[in-house]
Description:
Elements: E1 15-19, E2 23-28, E3 36-40, H1 66-77, H2 83-94, H3 100-109, H4 111-121, E4 132-142, E5 145-154, E6 160-166, H5 171-181, E7 189-192, H6 199-205, E8 210-213, H7 224-237, H8 246-263, H9 274-277, H10 284-292
Parallel strand pairs: 4-7, 7-8
Antiparallel strand pairs: 1-2, 2-3, 4-5, 5-6
Amino acid sequence: MLGYPSCPLCGNGTFLHHDYKFYSQFTCNSKKCSHSIFVPKPSSIDKASCELLSGKLDFKRMRFPLFFIITALNLYFLNGASTRRIAQFFNINFNVKVSHVTIHSWCKKFAPIFLHKSNMLSTDLNLSDSDEWHTDETVIFINGKKHYLWFIIDSETRMVLSFNLSPSREASDAFSLFHSASKFGCPSSIVTDRFPAYNIPTKTIFPNSKHIKVSSFNDDISNNVIEAFNDTFKDWYKRKRGFKSFDSTNAFISMFIFHYNFLRPHYSLNNLSPAEVAGISYNDVDKRNWLLSVFV
Length: 296
């Protein structure tokens, strides 16, 4: 198996092959060893929802100047303003009448543009030297129905590496989340709660990472990093008065993550964004330039 005539751990037993939907498991048949190797099947793993955005990839043929669109997006995702308050702001400060419905459509229709920009900026980012990546899931409601939002975040940079929105809470969803995040490398440790759905995906996607399972904040290593992020997200989410469809919710979350990773200054990071701490080099002038010119 995989070029090994015998088990690489004990050197005696041979491997027994067990095939599953998302991975293959090879287990040493020696009772004293029972060492297992998990091999992923990338083509069988569903894409995380963050990778499924589609729509406009430019700001062309827009009725309003790009400045107004970018300002509206920043007010909505960074300052937590409602679309009605943003419309009021434009009317009072610029004597420009924009429907709150139009602003609402901006906040979701341009998500593919910012996902594309995020992918471009993160192309060479490698976080394999990170000590810990933390993952967790939280509940949100779409049209009154419970959904699970899975996040994985780097503890050192606070950068959200991937998210997966799903109506289920199963190992298949963790596989999608981890496979999406694996493009950033393999950390020393993956920190999760004790939910068993994380066990096999962690062994399969991050075989060289130590899986740390925490049960409470009293543990030596806690999941405080991602719990704090969940609080930030929930604070924003609760102001939105619910979401209506899966696709629009997925787009809104993608835009929130972009602003969180690349634009929001974090007090705990010396007022830098997670992307800047991760080594992606840009400044305030760059932010304005690549938001205002790259996609025109």
